[in-house]
Amino acid sequence: MANFAKAFAATMKTEGGYVDDPQDPGGETYKGVSRKLNAKWDGWFLVDAAKSKANFPANLDSNTKLQEKIKTFYEINYWNKVRGNDINNQNIAESIFDFAVNAGPITSIKLAQTSVNVKPDGTFGPVTLKKINADDSRTFLAVFALHKIKRYVDICEKRQESKKFFYGWVKRTLEAA
Known about the structure:
Number of helices: 8
Strand order of the largest sheet: 1-2-3
Largest sheet: 3 strands, antiparallel
Shape: globular
Number of strands: 3
Radius of gyration: 17 Å
Structural class: mainly alpha
Number of domains: 1
Distance between the termini: 18 Å
C-alpha cells in the first residue's frame, strides 16, 4: 500500500510556489492549484489576503492553514481518484499521482490503463488496479513515462506556446519514473 505523505512531498518538489504566467493556460497558480480550473477552492481566500502583506508570495509558504488546505486538496482531488492507497508499489503510485496533478486524474488513469493493456476509460476500477499491482514496476514506469512524453509532444504540436514547458514536463516525467 502506497503512502500519500511521501507522494505529496515528492510532487510538491516539482509544483513550486506561486506563479502567474500569462502563457500558462491555467493562469494564476499556487503549488499547482490553478485558479482558472479551481476557482472555488477555499485556499484562494488565503492567497488573496496574503497579497496585501509584506513578502508576498514568500509569505504563503509559512501559512500553515493554507498548507493544510493544499495537502487536503491534493489528497481528495488526485490521490483518492487514482486510488493511491490501493496501489502496492510506492513508485508507481507516485508516478500516477504526480501525472494526475499535472494532467488531471482521468488522463493519468487512461495512460496508466494503456500502459498495462486495459481499455482506457479513465475509471480506476478493479481490473486496472489488479493489472497495475501485478505489473513489474520498472516496466510499468518506463512505459508510462513514454506515454506521458508522447502526450506532451502532442500538446506542443497543437499549442506552440506550450513548447516552453516541454523540457520541464519531460524532466518531471523522468524524475517520477
